[in-house]
Amino acid sequence: MKILITGNMGYIGPCVVQRLYASYPEATLVGLDMGYFANCLTGTEILPECRVDVQYFSDVRHLPKDLLRDINAIVHLAAISNDPMGNTFEEVTLDINYHATIELAKKAKEAGVKTFVYASSCSMYGFAEGGPRTEKSPLNPLTAYAKSKALAEKDLEKIADKRFVVTSLRFSTACGMSERLRLDLVLNDFVACAVTSKKITILSDGTPWRPLINIKDMAQAIDWAIKRGTANGGEFLALNIGSNEWNYQVKDLAEAVAKVIPDVNISINKDAQPDKRSYKVSFDLFKKLAPDYQPKVDLITTIKELKDGLEAMEFKDGDFRNSKFMRLKVLSQLRNKDLLTENLEWANKSSGA
Ligand SMILES: NC(=O)c1ccc[n+]([C@@H]2O[C@H](COP(=O)([O-])OP(=O)(O)OC[C@H]3O[C@@H](n4cnc5c(N)ncnc54)[C@H](O)[C@@H]3O)[C@@H](O)[C@H]2O)c1
Fold this sequence. Notes:
By secondary structure, the protein is of the alpha/beta class.
């Protein structure tokens, strides 16, 4: 068994690699990543990439020759992975998240890869009123990021067949401690606010709904998707990944953090424009198809894990919303220093030396 994991050097990737290493100890794990956030390590003694057998520092837009030889399964995480980056680098987001994904899938099918697991997102539901969104609900992608995910998913469905099984995992918003922790995610941000300044500033009016999932449970779902056969969901399956109990309003998340971390003050921006991204999601189908792979790490455990992780790092930066813990900041800084071109490709490799 040989598994390719693209985007393995991001926030979720290290956790996915650990899970696959435990589940498939005999497998050859191959990583491929541009390395945008390679040096954003947090609280780890080793370079997480030591856990893969082969690491490519490459761009999914220019696939290395022979990359796909003998690969059985692909976990495709590589992407411009949130709304702020997608809004700033709109065209590149479409190129990487949509066009390169479809090219990769086509080449993989040609090369005889059997299984393709795609990291999609519940954010494709956009603003959704009238009950939890199911996989049959219409999509309403409101941002460049969400649109790129929706377009990729639609074309992946056309490529899937009984020789090339595709699972598009529509993940809830991720949270939890990682060897490359990001703080541009709602729960992670609230815990970091509480730890550094005892004050959580909610940028919205607190009412938007968000389903959440711990990254360990995302990795578990990916493990399931690699194993599932066509009998369990068909040749193409788009599936909401999370749990019904983890649909929260943003203000509930802040209150949960304040329960775990004492003396935290919560301020809500009452004058904020209503957040257009608000959606409740139904995870019934996931429960039906994968009863043994349901999310296990609950909200309070995740908050404690983040608190402990940040304290172990002696994290004190109250201004972290302007720091390298925000992915947009990292990319913008690399651009400002001309280390990345406007297409977000590495510039002349001697620059920055
Ligand atoms: N974090 C979330 O809340 C969430 C939720 C739903 C879905 N997802 C999806 O899961 C995947 C992983 O998310 P993450 O939070 O780890 O993101 P991340 O931004 O931390 O990691 C993405 C990785 O992809 C790499 N990458 C980007 N463009 C590339 C390219 N052209 N070639 C090669 N590598 C490239 C980056 O260097 C980075 O290491 C993404 O596809 C994301 O859209 C994330």
